[in-house]
Each structure stands twice: as C-alpha cells, then as structure tokens.
Amino acid sequence: MQSTELQQLEVVVSIPADYVLIKKDDYKIMLDEQLNGKWWDMKELTDRTKTSKDWLIENVFYQPRFKKILDVKHNGFVKYPSGKGSKWLFQAKKMSKFLDDFFPEIMK
Predict the structure, then answer these.
(1) pLDDT tens digits for 46-58?
(2) How many helices (H) and strands (E) does the chain have?
(3) Predicted model pTM
C-alpha cells in the first residue's frame, strides 16, 4: 500500500492598501445592516425592482393578500399615500425581505 502524504503550500497574497479583508459572515452582516434605518420612496423602489410604479401598485400594493401585510395601518412597513401630494414610503430592509420572500407569488 502506498501512503498518501499531504503537501502544504504557503502562498503570500498582497492586498492593496485600499482593500479590506473580512470574514464572509461579517460581510453578510454588513450587507444586511446596510438597509437598517433606511426608507425608500417610490422612485427608489422602482429603480431597485426595475418595474414601474403602476405595475407595483397593481400587482403588489393593492392586492388584498399583500396589503394586509404591507400597510402601516395593519402594522406593516409601507406608508400608503393618504391623499393628493402624499407620498409612498417603505422601510427598506423589510420591503426588500418581503420582495424576496414573496417573489414567486408576486410574479404569478
């Protein structure tokens, strides 16, 4: 029988001064926290989803099954406009999670 020996190779990697090396877990946490405390308006949401305001309103915000989850009046995270000149506002982190979680259902 042959014995298998493990070989180790030491490699030196130079990291440019304007880069930072961090653990994957820390990077994921940092990305997640990037949306904490941020609010989006409708323009930001349409830019991020690559959809139109009308499409979002029709397919997401005024769908009864979603409105119960989304509307701040039902303890949600979307402030629906309350009249002419009133704006939509979204808690960015919660809206982003909702869009990820409900993507298949939204696209049906």
Answers:
(1) 999 999 999 999 9
(2) 6, 3
(3) 0.74
